[in-house]
Amino acid sequence: MTTTPDRARGGARNNPTERAVTRESAPPDAPARETVLTVEGLDVHAGSTRLLHDVTFSIQRGERVGLIGESGSGKSLTALAVMGLLAEGVTATGQVRLAGHDTELLGASERRMSQLRGDRMAMIFQEPMTALNPTMKVGRQVAEVLTQHRTADRRAAARRAVELLGQVGLPDPRAVARSYPHQLSGGQRQRVVAAIALANDPLLLVCDEPTTALDVTVQALVLDLIVRGVEDRDAAMLFITHDLAVVATVCERVLVMYGGRIVEAGPVTEVLGDPQHRYTQGLVAASDLERARTGPGRQPLDTIAGNVPPAGRFPDGCVFRNRCAFATEVCEQVPPWTPRGRHEAGEHASGYACFHPVGSETGE
Amino acid sequence: MLLRLARRFLVLLVSLAVASVLVFAFMQVLPGDPARVALGMNSSDEAVAQLREQFGLDRPLLVQYADWLGGVVTLDLGVEWVSKAPIAPQLVDRLAVTGWLVITAMVLALVIALPVGTWMAVRHRHADGVLLSAISQVGVAVPAFLAGIILITYFAKRWQWFPSGGWVPPAEDPVQFLLRLALPAISLALVQASMLARYVRSAVLEVLREDYLRTARAKGLRPMQALTRHGLRNAAVPIVTVLGLQLATLLIGAVVVERVFVIPGLGSFLLDSVAARELITVQTIVMVLVAAVLIINFLVDTVYLLIDPRLRVGHR
Question: Which CATH superfamily is domain B95-275 in?
């Protein structure tokens, strides 16, 4: 996926200096990029059940960070907490901050949050078939996000909506703008959702498994346009998926989540190529098609023993210890975060939380 | 879409035809000679024979049916058997009275039920939402005539804010018209509003769980904005269904409420005609009521098409 700096900028906005950041691939020793999203000590509870615990990470401008883990590990919940879209009765504590806004977002008013949502931070959801209003024309649904944030008046918004639909690769965007969602395919609808999310050139784009529900043939196309949209705007991206191959192609850095905690983080090549946490090791082994195909005796794929417990039923201490072959008594304590190497985004950008990391068995 | 409408219209015509046959046949299988019933048991055989001849009751059934249906379609309904009063003008007048009553009640019910039902859904986890829900449950259980009697007792008798009954056409005296319309319309509307509010509540609850509402929130719409701009239209489909059914029940409910408030509507006309044993008039009024219900259903189907674009694609 290449960057084309001279592509049409998304912004018809009134502040060109803020927007016209030309993204060139940063040289490896470039000074630290601006941090767009900071999440610190995020806890999420539903009643007395703890769903997320001490989730800490940050994303820099132009950085694409993956969030992986099995279903039920808390990935979507993290995204919804960041967006302030948690269901009624689900509460978040901790800190979420967005670049350029001093206020802490978890405590912010609904009014303040709705000003940010769809403008400074946007989200693409998993299920394109139901994400659009079936009784409203597609063009109006795109235009609405512009008029809502007063980016454009009604007329200009309608025109801009057609442009945006064209930018996400929809053929005959005028006709698409006039159609209803049910007249479009799943892939087309997801492009529309992407057009809505990118309309106001957000600082942060959160994608919750945006291609999981799509045909394999369409997945790559939609992924490509999302990544291009993000690159063009030099936006930060949090990309949720359970598909390691997708993470490897889309993201630079990855967070591994299990039991409502981040158990490992780091550059994609490090985490997926040389995992430290036993859970990550299991995940990678379970996706290792290469070995299953060519390994001795054509072994079946490795699986992680047991199932993801229901929310609130994870063991204390290390959340993975009841499924981990290496767990010992010490794992009844919460494993501390062990930074791995040095990363410009801080010690939480790369490291793991495991008492018995991969390779430690020889030493003991 | 036009094709679909045309098909629905055809269905309407066929249902009307079938209904007319049923109504006619039903009146025929009633025991006894309608002419004798109309004139009374002690009437002379000559008088009965004369009436039978005068109104063609001695003709074959098929001819009688065709004659009656022709009359209904052309609004040339002839005169009542005994009083000889022409039927058509009475029917039109009384239909207008019932129309005012039913439509006012329906509009009132909608105006109450939409916001209250939405509030009940949005606040369904809070005390006020639950309380409203409980009140609506009670409202459903109160029959319209009882509500009418209670309203008369307090608003007409004790405080004398409204007349207790009667009717003044709107062209004659608009103020008196409204004063006399108020209590009967409210007593019909209360039950309907309670019921409708419960349906609005469940339809809105359903919509609140929809993905597109979350998308709307992600676009920066505040919760109420998202609900009103994206939710209500989608919630409208089940609500319109109930609305159609309710209009039909209102027509029937009006029969009783018109009695309580002494209003010369279709309901009173029906009861009077039954009492006077004017079978042909009864038959015609019943047909008008049935036709009204069928036409309401047709309109409901049409409104579906306007609300939900997905239904507009005609199936092969």
Answer: MetI-like (1.10.3720.10)
Task: Report d(CA B281, CA B276) in Å as an integer.
Answer: 10
C-alpha A300/C-alpha A293 separation (Å) is 8
Instruction: Classify residue A107: in a domain, yes or no.
Output: yes
What integer pLDDT is reported at residue A292 of this predicted model?
63
The answer to whether residues A290 and A334 belong to one domain is yes
pLDDT grade for A175, boundaries at 50, 70 and 90: very high
Complex ipTM more than 0.90, yes or no? no
B29 Cβ contact partners less than 8 Å away, ≥ 6 residues apart:
none
Residue pLDDT, tens place only, B168-192: 888 899 999 999 999 999 999 999 9
The partner residues of A255 in beta bridges, in order of sequence, read A67, A265
Closest CA to B81 of B40, B114, B31: B40
Cβ contact (<8 Å) for B310 and A134? yes
Interface contacts (A, B; CB < 8 Å)? 76
Q: Are strands A49-60 and A64-68 parallel, antiparallel or unpaired?
A: unpaired
Contact with chain A for residue B221, Cβ under 8 A: yes
Domain containing A115 equals 35-251
Chain A residues closer than 8 Å to B211 by CB: 125, 127, 130-131
Contact B220 A131 (CB under 8 A): no
- Tell me the H-state helices in chain A: 16-19, 75-83, 110-116, 128-131, 138-148, 154-167, 173-178, 186-198, 216-233, 244-250, 268-273, 278-286, 289-294, 360-363
* Cβ pair B125:A134 closer than 8 A: no
Q: Domain boundaries in chain B?
A: 1-83+278-316, 95-275
Contact: A117, B234; criterion CB under 8 Å: no
Task: Say if residues B95 and B266 touch (Cβ distance below 8 Å).
Answer: yes
pLDDT digits (tens, 9 = 90+) for B95-107: 999 999 999 999 9
CB contact under 8 A, B309 and A134: yes
For position A65, what pLDDT does the model report? 96
Q: What is the pLDDT of residue A15?
A: 41
